[in-house]
Amino acid sequence: MKKNNFLALLFLIVGFLTNAQVANAPCNDFSTWTSNNYSSITVANQTGLFGDSWSNKNNLIDGNTGNAASWSAILLGSSWIEARNASGSTFPAGSYAGFVVGDLDLVSLGASMKVATYNGTTKQEEVNFSSLVSTILDGSGKRKVGFVTTKPFNRIRLTVNAGLTLVFTANAYYAEVVKPCAGAALACNTTTDITRTNYGAIVEPSRTGMSGISLGSVSNADNVANANVSDFATITINAGVAASGSISIRDIGDTFPAGTYAGFDIENQSLINAQFFNNITLKSYKNGVLQETVSGSNLLMGLGSDVVASTGRSVVGFLTTKAFDELQITVNSLATINIGNTKVYKMIAMKPCQKTISCNSSYYLTQPDFPVVLNSQRTGLGTLACIGCSVNSADNVIDNDPNNYSRITLAAGVGNTGSISVMDPTATYPKGTYTGFTVKDRYFVYQGDFLEYITIKTYLNGVLQESKTSNELFDLSFFIPIWGTGTKNVGFYTTKDFNEVQIETGSIGSVVNVLDVYSAFIDTRSSNGGSLNCVQAIAAADDSYTINVGGTSTASVITNDTYQGNPANLGASGNLVLTQNSGQNNGITIDPNTGLVTVSPNTAAGTYPVTYTICNNVTPASCDFATVNVVVAADSVNAQDDILTVPAGTTSAQNVLLNDTVNGLQAILGNLLLTQVSTSNPGITLNTSTGNVSVASGTAPGTYQIVYKATTLLGGNSDTATVTVIVPGIPPAPDMKVNISASASSYSFGEPLQMFYEVKNIGNANTDGSEIVVYIYKPNSTDEFTYSTLPMGWTLKSQTSDYYAFSTNKVINQGGSDTIILNYTDNSPSGDTALFKSLMTNGAGGEINFLNNLSAELIFRNDF
Fold this sequence. Notes:
By secondary structure, the chain is mainly β. The protein is built from 3 helices and 68 strands. The radius of gyration is 43 Å and the shape is elongated.
């Protein structure tokens, strides 16, 4: 064989073997770039005047992972060392690439490290690590520095900068990679540890560590990602400091979908108190980008090994709403609180799958049948000050072993509480569902009625719905099986939807209170809502009414309710009994005999929900619930102008309220307040107690005006009107007046408003045909103020930038009128009112009264 051909074949064989090594690299596990794993691995480093700057550089790639290549430097020194796949074969994008280095405190030294990947001589990516304070892997002080790549590579370089340190030594033990492979799909309602090698779990160094220097440490971080379920990392925060420690686990082989329950299995003695969860924050990431942040009351506890036990171990997580491939836990400490060490065992994930439930059935809310978790904010002790108190193994309440239970122990005293809250994040259980907990009171012989010390509460999306205690609770063991002697199913029939149920027990003054809690449950025999309409015989439907103050609905709330498919009936001969349950205002009542809703006269305007129950007369009764949404309308008033002829020295026989209305009905002094606004003659007055007009003796004959205001007693709505008072004694004569009104009560910038100028003869005779001239003034000369058509017989006499003058010689009969309509548009960005004015020429149409020839109306701007 020729020499050239032999060399080509040799290179081909070496390349084939090297490619096979890359392809056969272990999935989801660290693989050291050392000669015992990869035959083509070489090492290179930066050189100086005296040769290699790294001593024992081949230690980086030999098969002994316990020795290291070393570099020593002085002030501002820098050097690199690199592991190379000499064959040129590449690891794929998405792989982890990094180094294991010695225990260095880079922050205090002012130094830094960089990890870069290359494809041949071309740099692909680089990440800087300026702080390694809290990435300790194990007791030997080794640390990992690396990152998840986005480009293929066949070289990994470590660069170390000494910074301002006078004498500096760096140790590099070996380079390593993790090839990503997809893990198994998550099982329904079962928590799974996200660890190597089942999943591509690695510690993300850039988001793992402490918030500062010498405040604590994060040790053995990689224990969270390895497959040993007994291993754990420890977040230590020194007492008396405000600091935080974090561990972030990234799965380089998988992306978990939105709706996944994700969290960490952790342990801290402070977890026996629900308030500790305010010190925990979880964050999810995807490709290094933050997706969600959850802390405090939004955290949920999943199924762990010893949840809220005496050791304080718990799975703490949340239901994600965005896809993610990385989860970080941060434990925060305040300077005033010493939370001690927090052990972090594993990252966990669970696929919540909603359980299909049926009518007339009972269910225990346990995994994996239901995707239930414990709400951390409502599980645990009410205070850490309770010595000898505990909530042990709370997650036993949601496992599927009927013999397991959580024990709540409260020392004798007053004010101590312990609670467990079970939440289904995928479902909403309808009203009418019976819910509660199976419990056993260990001291019931001494306590008597132990229900006095138990409270059951329901929540919907974190909002309290109902709370029942003592005689409001009852045992439903007839339908729901119980476990062992002395157990009871304590609960109540709900009247509102819920997705979380909590049991809380309180301390007893003289003895220790010990309560064993087995499981939460639901029973659907009376459920009515959503996909469950289990109470077919009785169906109550919600209603909505608008009722004036002091009024009664025209329809009964049971108009749309049914009994056995037929219309519901009340009363002595009816088939149902109605009971009003609640209302936000005691002034709104439902008549149990008619179902009519009444609003008392002193009820403020607003919207009020009122609930009621209808039941049949059998035992046990079947019932259903509904809500009546009552809109209480404020009183409205409409005051109309009047014309009265009243001789001097007398009082009018007609009341000015005769043509006025309140809520569309005849206005009376019993439903409004009457006040006199003005009078054109002090001898002519309005009696506000009767509504009649009096003219003093000696008042000169003529035509006068009284302006009055009518105000509703509830709501304070008001309207004004003008009474034209004719004092006889002179020949009949016309009297011209302009009434100004608008198409709306307010206006806005740039929006047209119609203005109506009613030219009315309010005298006691027709006009005589002489000229009637009306001047209509613009509120502002810059605004648009136009007219389109005039009433028949009217013409534009003249106009300026400030007014229009319109005239007519037509005869306007007594009480007759013509209306001139102008369009107004506000073009000024400033100003909050517009004043519309008009002036009638004295003597218009033969009138002799000039006192009412000037009219004005003020309109407010609503967007200023």
